[in-house]
Amino acid sequence: MSGALQGKTALVTGGTSGIGLAVVRRFVDEGAHVFITGRRQQQLDAVAREFGDRVTAVRADASVPSEVAALFEAVAARGQGLDAVHANAGVGGFKALAEVTAEDIDLAFATNVRGSILTVQGALPYLNPGAAIVVTGSTSASGTEPHLGLYGASKAAASTLTRTWAAELAPRGIRINTVVPGPTETPGLAGLAPNDPDALLKQLAGAVPLGRLIRPEEVAAAVLYLVSDQSSGTTGSELFVDGGISAV
Question: 100 lies in which domain range?
Answer without folding.
Answer: 9-241
